[in-house]
Amino acid sequence: MTAYAMVINGERVAGASSFPVLNPADETAFAQCPKADKAQLEQAIAAAKAAFPGWAATPIEERAQALVAIGKALESRAQEFAGLITREQGKPIDQAMFEVMGSVAVLMTFAGMRLDPQVISDANGRKVIEHRTPLGVVAAITPWNYPLILHCAKVAPALMAGNSIVAKPAPTTPLATLKFVELCADHLPAGVLNVICDENDLGAELTSHPDVAKVSFTGSTPTGKKVVQAAAGTLKRTTLELGGNDAAIVLDDVDPVAVARHVFQGAMGNAGQICFAIKRAYVPSSLYEDFCAELARLASEAIVDDGAKQGTQVGPLQNAMQFEKVKGYLADAKQNGKVIAGGAPLDRPGYFIAPTIVRDIADDAKVVREEQFGPILPVLKYDDIDDVIARANDSEFGLSGTVWGKDVEAATAIAMRVDAGTVWVNQHMAIDFAIPFRGAKQSGIGGEYGQEGLHEYTQAHIVNAVELSDA
Predict the structure, then answer these.
(1) How far is residue 406's CA from residue 411's CA, in Å, rounded to a whole number?
(2) What is the pTM of this model?
(3) What is the predicted pLDDT for the residue at 189?
(4) Res 246: pLDDT
């Protein structure tokens, strides 16, 4: 088995112990991941704290140059990183390559941003300037569905803003992150970017630590609530990108077959393990039969296999725990709706579930109300647009959503009424790293990407000056 190392203060470090990393396509261990103990976590935080003043004082142009160099180095090793992501995460190799190149784009996008002082007022003898200053040590905690790009989406703005970092990847997908931080060590001062691994036993220690100034977390809503509780003791800054139950609203002026194909792709990418995947579709009665029939055809013809094999469209679920959860949603779908494609795990090693389409199901079914995070799509019928908007909004989640219609102006007007942080019209997952992305309700706090995402890693610092009076 290949052995991996953590990076603390610029040095490769073995763990106090180790644990195996499994390939979800066959459930076999193929690598050993180092596991940090509390002493190593303290070392990583101390290294980041010591490195912070020097990195914060480094001119932003030099910080940008470092990000560009890291991006180019990652791009030069794209095939290697994509293969590793597929092996530990399970997604098809083309989707893994998309993640790697997206990570490069994240780095380059933030490298192009700046934090220039903003003059708020300069009149009548008074000058007010807003500066953006770095916060200190940032804890970057990432999930297992997109281990590299979500890591880069935290590291890039944190570094550009002048912060130092302790990263903690998910224990089932730590390897691409370890390799990436090792790559970064060639371009950053020691201690600026550190990475420790655990089996979900050091999270509370990291997020509550008094020397950590900010926590940036992507993951489930229940875990996000625990992060907030841990951070509350020191009132540290938090950015949380949490769960979603994104609705697709299909209008009655579209070609149901064509739109069904778009919705299917939006629901089944990465085996449905995307926070802003389409997780429920609302279709007018007049289009319902054709729409469901096309979804069923696509699901039944999808190639489900090991992501390392060319041509695979849907890979396995990432881990055994999620596999068991999704099997529970399959049972609910069968009990409360009509399964017209899929509906069962594949009879083979690995965490494979056939793409599943469920029709004739009520809004209060578990598979509709909750975030499945798997290759299951419930399709619901509607007759009144006001009613369907209310049904789509009747959720504790509000990450994103979609509206599909030929009349773009009408579709946009409906999108304005959907209670979510982002609503796309006639497209899905159209992520642009220059555009802010944020969740509503229990889908998150704060924003990522765009200038706003960079500002999340800073303190707004107002200097308000007037001329000294002789009176």
Answers:
(1) 8
(2) 0.97
(3) 98
(4) 98
Other Cβ atoms within 10 Å of 348 Cβ, number: 12
Q: Are 209 and 181 in contact (CB under 8 A)?
A: no
Average pLDDT, the chain: 97
Q: Which of 241, 294, 448, 456 is catalytic?
A: 241
Neighbours of 232 (CB within 10 A): 12
Name the nearest CA neighbour of 88 among 169, 195, 191, 204.
Answer: 169
Buried b (16+ CB within 10 A) or exposed e, 109-132: bbbebebeeeeeeeeeeeeeeeeb
- CA nearest to 31, candidates 39, 20, 40: 20
The residue-averaged pLDDT of 217-231 equals 96
Catalytic residue, from 152, 197, 275, 292: name it: 275
Are the C-beta atoms of 172 and 317 separated by less than 8 Å? no
Q: Which residues contact 185 (CB under 8 A, 6 or more apart)?
A: 7, 10, 193
The answer to whether residues 285 and 62 touch, using CB atoms and an 8 Å cutoff, is no
Task: Please provide residue 237's backbone torsions phi and psi, each rounded to the nearest 5 degrees.
Answer: -65, 145
Nearest to 158 by CA among 227, 286, 283, 56: 56
Reported as type and span, the H/E element at residue 97 is helix 93-111
How far, CA to CA in Å, does 238 sit from each of 106, 123, 208, 220, 438?
A: 20, 36, 11, 15, 13
Closest CA to 199 of 22, 377, 63, 77: 22
Report the distance separating Cα 193 and Cα 205, nearest Å.
18
DSSP for 145-160, please give it: SSTTHHHHHHHHHHHH
pLDDT band per the 50, 70, 90 thresholds, residue 3: confident
Q: What is the DSSP letter of 467?
A: P
Contact of 159 with 66, CB cutoff 8 Å: yes
Compute the CA torsion angle 297, 393, 405, 363 (nearest 10 deg). 30
Q: Is 275 a catalytic residue?
A: yes
241 counts as catalytic: yes
- One-letter amino acid at 441 equals K
Contacts of 90 (CB under 8 A, 6+ apart): 23, 24, 25, 271, 307, 315, 316, 317, 318, 351
